[in-house]
Amino acid sequence: MSSEPIPVVDNTPPVPPAPAASLSDIKHDVEKLAPGSLVGYSGEENGENGRRPVHLARKLNARQITFIGFSGGIGTGLFIGAGAAYAKSGPAGLFLAYSVVGSILWCVMQSISELGTLIPTAGSFPHWATRFIDPSVGFSLALSYGYCYTIAIASEVSAAAVIVSYWTDLTPAVVISVGLALIIAINLLPVRFYGEAEVATAIVKILCFLGLVVVSLVITLGGAPNGDRIGFRYWNDPGPWVDYNGITGATGHFCGFLAAFVNASFSFIGVETVVVAAAEAENPHRSIPKAARRVTARIGFFCTLGSILIGMTVDPRNPDLTSGSGNANSSPWVLAIKAARIPVLDSIVNACILISAWSAGNSYCWVGSRMITAMVHDKQLPSLFGITNKHGTPYYAVLLSFAFGPLAYLSLGSGGASQAFAWLQNLSTIAGLIAWGTLCAAYLRFHRGCKVQGVDRSSFPWKSPLQPFTAWYGFIGSVIVTFVSGFSVFLKGNWDAQDFIAAYIGIPIFIVPILLWKLFKRTRFVRAREMDLFSGRLDPASLPIPPVPTTAWGKFIDWLF
Q1: pLDDT in tens, 388-417
Q2: pLDDT digit string (tens) for 241-270?
Q3: 122 beta partners
Q4: Are residues 509 and 142 in contact, defined by beta-carbon separation less than 8 angstroms?
Q5: What is the CATH number of the domain that holds 137?
Q6: Cβ atoms 482, 269 nearer than 8 A
């Protein structure tokens, strides 16, 4: 390919024709497609550049996509998981950990959102790795990331059963069955129903968190029924840091920070799924950049503010923080509410946690099915899983993704079954971190391809800031979290082979498929000069333009969300 700059006509990046078709053929095929369909499809069976086209319905509006981002970022990690991290790190360690991980997430989101805005293909993530790094990397990312989310369906539904145990002794099997039935029902409906479900659950989560902010301020200022004015008491006693597992001094404080650092990373995993929605967005040129700028910043703010408030209302020495109950009994927010003797609120928070767990499982089924369609798009799975119904729902992909949900019943077992389920949970979280790093690497290769081919990123619908520094920061940060995730097993007297395997088995699980795919498919690293930078772009003229709010209230809501 020539290194001369590629001309841009009418500010729209050019779309080269498929090898077997002329430009007029492509224009004719684009006119036949529904508004918002992918440009670059030649009309042949294999689609552009030998790929199978998967046309999902573009029915998600900007409001739904924004709330999908909020729903993915506010979950059980913030409501429950932060408590264990706080007990290991102290107020300062928790605040610093959430701040650093928030910056990594912001960088990851900026990078993938530019790609999602420009090339909103089905499944997105593994397709970009296939296209800009190596098909073997795309294949492995689809397996590991898809596995991460399909397995997480089971973990979240089983978590919902534990959360219900806060109120009743109802058998967990009933809760798991009801949760799974609702998930499969919503995911088989047209995608707009999934979008509205995420809007509803996200609103509940946001209102719950905002309510907790107010309650926390009331508690720390002495306005609760117990009349205890806490202030920054716990920053003085036991202090801003705590000794991790009895390790004193700076070493213990640093280990506590690492523990909170890893926990915070797990809490943030899921925010990136908003970019997966690009393939089904009515206008990804507008909704995806908006989500990248606003949702990520607000989620980071929520989590950082939450870490400060937890440090002001709960004693990190409270043993209930590390009880591992899995429900509101180990939530730092609920512990503060109980200590302040505020009635009823603990049950309300537990209900919100229950909704969060179910919402996560619902989202994971949707994401997993879209990873499967990405593998179809790149000819790594049979075309059967790319078939959609009249509403644009890839129902075979949904059924395959959901097939892992019944693994939730493993959590009901004892001994080997429950241990196996715990391992599956650990593997899913590491897969999410590996995906962050891989996606940043894909963006770095894309950025390099643009530079070598003379493509001006200013011609894109949206250009993310501070690149390629942003992508490098996200990549390095994700790699660091992945490698320190099991640091505790290396501490003196803490070695445990099972914990080591659970923490790091996800790395070879990601690498081995890459090697096998390269061995059998003979794929090669994609050179910057040969990258396809144009297929899959949208025709801007076919995208609907959302109405601009004119009232003061409308402008405020648009700014807020």
Answers
A1: 888 888 888 899 889 888 888 877 765 444
A2: 888 887 888 888 898 888 888 888 877 877
A3: none
A4: no
A5: 1.20.1740.10
A6: no
